[in-house]
Design a protein that fits this description.
The protein is an alpha+beta fold. It is built from 10 helices and 13 strands. Helix 5 links the parallel strand 4 and strand 5.
Length: about 375
Amino acid sequence: MNTPAITGTGVFTPSEIITNAELVAAFNAYVDLFNAENADKIAAGAVAAKEYSSEEFIVKASGIQQRYVIDKTGVLDPKVMHPLLRQRGDDEPSLMAEMGVKAAQDALAQAGKSAKDVDLVICAASNMERAYPAVAIEIQQQLGINGFAFDMNVACSSATFGIQAAADMVRSGSIGGALVINPEICSAHLEWRDRDCHFIFGDVATATLIETAQAATGPYFEIKSTRCATEFSNNIRNNNGYLRRSRPAGMVDRRDMQFMQNGRKVFKEVLPMVSDHIAAHMADGGVQAADLKRLWLHQANKTMNDFIGKKVLGRTPEPSEQPNTLQDYANTSSAGSIIAFSKYSGDLEDGDKGLICSFGAGYSVGSVLVERHA
């Protein structure tokens, strides 16, 4: 049996940033428009008046201070409130593939590898730009990779589930190397007009190269073990099946066609599920809390991560033990834990252990125990 290892990671970050101040100004302007247009219905009690957002509310609720997006013009237009994504022709690269290729190229460069070292591409993300052909196959073609590719969707856990699938195939010897790519255009399925969630998401793409440890040409992270679990819940959902680019005239404006969550239930149900999952994974792997040098958690909410980190370590984690990227990137769904791992793993020493964990809609949770080899 081969030993699977993470030999490279890459992060593609969009150039446009929306600060909390910009977002609040746009949202509150939308609120003024909505309340003015519906003044009579609000007065009659038929429609509830919308409330203002604030920078203080956003930071307290999430820890987010800004987010990167593919398009900020539409999001910040009070009369639009969603990204304006150009409909690309069938002969053009899709937006998700374009983002994914850039992240993949960085991962390959970090590992000192090329397309010939990869046999599999998994495009793992919370929403796909289209149903078929698979975005993964498009990325495979653009990178010039032989072998095969497929898409995977397990919402915010897509990256860790993809890593498990790739690691299992490397371990068995059916492939030599795999790229797990997570292009997340979360801005396109967020309801920017909903005060409870309008600040949550950002856009990014990440990539993880998984090979045999023997193939590594530099420092790498041995994948000691992986664990995935799912349990059905409708408390986080999106009933739309594709990225929204515009609202055509006459379209029924169904709120459930964009991101929705019952935040209180999610907190109550997901936190113990994730904490117990990690504890069981560590126990089966013979790993004690004191053995873990770092936790790279899903970047959804600072309060959630602080709770999980304390449960896992038995104490409040130091910032260096549980790095957050949430304040800069916001929630980037499956890519969040990989951003944290990519940016905050290079300083670990030979033999240091850590755990990557993502969790979210489904419910789903995936964890990866790794050990540094310098």
